[in-house]
Amino acid sequence: MTKTAIITGGTVGIGYELSKLIAADGYDLILVARNEKTLKKVKKEIESSNKVKVDILSLDLADPKSPKKIFDFAKKTKAVVEVLVNNAGFGTNGKFDRMDLKEELQMVQVNVASLVELTHLFLQGMVERKNGKILNVASIAGFQPGPNMANYYATKAYVLSFSEAVYEDVKKDGVTVTALCPGPTKTEFFERAEITKSKLLDNPMAPIMEAKEVAEIGYDALKKGKSVVIAGALNKILAQSVRITPRFVTRKITKFFNQNG
Q1: Keywords in UniProt for this one (predicted)?
Q2: Residue 53 contacts residue 28 (beta carbons within 8 Å)
Q3: Residue 132 contacts residue 174 (beta carbons within 8 Å)
């Protein structure tokens, strides 16, 4: 049976770059994203460059039914899922009391609940086969609270903590779970979050990285079975500095950089 990788949010940014890297290693792909037109475009591109099959699923992970639909599709097609990449996610910007509650709850569904369900659904088969790798895209935001992006930072803290814990749960079963923690990256994230004027985009302490570079770092860590990888030397320093900085100082600094304009 051909080895298969599932990638959510696999048509843009870090997910798109990971899709190309994983396909180049001979994995058939199941790509999940909302935009069917973009899915078809990426499918054609990857299949023309690699001897692999790419299946596409146009689903919104804000819909609680989507994770089970992905699992059922893999089961129906008898795909042996050796790699799961939980990359789909989004953020918002502004004081939490002024945010749209529906959108904030959708963020929790996409960033956390769908990730947890997909991990649980596919992890069981991996443990039974004593083989499998999961890459959960967290963020350096997961190391600290994030005023003006409170819910997003909280979801990424969950992903980081969850991934590390499950890594310990299954590491003796031949399965690894890796948390990829990027800093600011050139993707559609900032436009989606409506923070194109954020000071995060002009921070010499954390320069914006290319999505391709972040994906390469994440995929290398996945293959090596690392529990956590932080993309970028300066981001590693920032993540570690948070551990020794008083929380009230961290909150004020993060609030300053998260201001939009």
Answers
A1: Oxidoreductase
A2: yes
A3: yes
Using the predicted structure, report yes or no on whether residue 193 has a pLDDT greater than 50: no
pLDDT at 189 over 90: no
pLDDT tens for 140-169 read 999 888 889 999 999 999 999 999 999 999
- Summarised one tens digit per residue, pLDDT across range 225-257 is 999 999 988 888 887 877 777 676 676 666 656
Assess whether 152 carries a catalytic annotation: yes
Residues 6+ apart with CB under 8 A from 172: none
The DSSP code for 110 is: I
> CA-to-CA distance for 176 and 186, rounded, in angstroms?
28
CA 122, CA 130: separation in Å to the nearest integer? 12
Select which of 156, 158, 167, 219 is catalytic.
156
Q: How confident is the model at residue 186 (pLDDT cuts 50, 70, 90)?
A: confident
Q: Give residue 65's Cα distance to chain centre.
A: 19
Report the C-alpha gap between 144 and 250 in whole angstroms. 7
Q: Catalytic one among 16, 27, 152, 219?
A: 152
Total number of domains constituting the chain: 1
Active-site residue, 27 included = no
User: What does the CA dihedral 183, 187, 190, 193 come to, rounded to 10 degrees?
Assistant: -110
Domain containing 54 equals 3-257
In this structure, what CATH number is given to the domain that contains residue 145? 3.40.50.720
Proportion of the chain in helix, strand, coil states, percent, rounded to 5? 55, 20, 30
Distances (CA, A) of 204 to 32, 101, 147, 192: 34, 33, 20, 23
